Amino acid sequence: MAILKIARMGHPVLLERCAPVADPGAPEIRRLAADMIATMEDAPGVGLAAPQVHVPLRLFVFRVPDGRRGGDPEDLPLGNAVLVNPEVELLTDERVLRWEGCLSIPGLRAAVPRAPRIRYRGVDLDGQPVERVVSGFHAGVVQHEYDHLDGILYTMRLTDFRLFGFSEEIARATAPAGDRP
Ligand code: NI
User: Fold this and answer.
1) Is the preceding omega at residue 116 within 30 degrees of 0, hence cis?
2) Are 36 and 46 in contact (CB under 8 A)?
3) 94, 145, 168, 169: the active-site residue
4) What is the pLDDT of residue 95?
């Protein structure tokens, strides 16, 4: 496995509409997915889409660590997962602001409007169908990664630029007074 170079905002590959994966089980796709998981873990991050490693194909890897989930039972925990040729259906017109970062936009965070509940479908590396209804953090991660496949970065979704800044400043501003360095 290899740690791949991550494209940063400004690189044109992040603005492409990615092409479907013709054969999800192909050896080169399995190798790409394994390298993407290694890259995501190394970063560390909770999601990584193929265009972020300069491959404009419709797949992403992600994980939902127990510690990051909300209390909702539909906010399903998930180990390292690969989703190929995904589709996302927003199950509500409601939008909630969720704090997000992106490995292609290092050091920054923003509160991004996202649907709180979605259904997603796709296939895994064996071509087996995947379908889940999820909420909360899990739903946010999938919407963020799915956007990458259409060339959309979270910055393009922002509605309140006051809620956009450097992670360190935001952490300092929101930490309890006694915890401030
Ligand atoms: Ni991202």
Assistant:
1) no
2) no
3) 145
4) 97
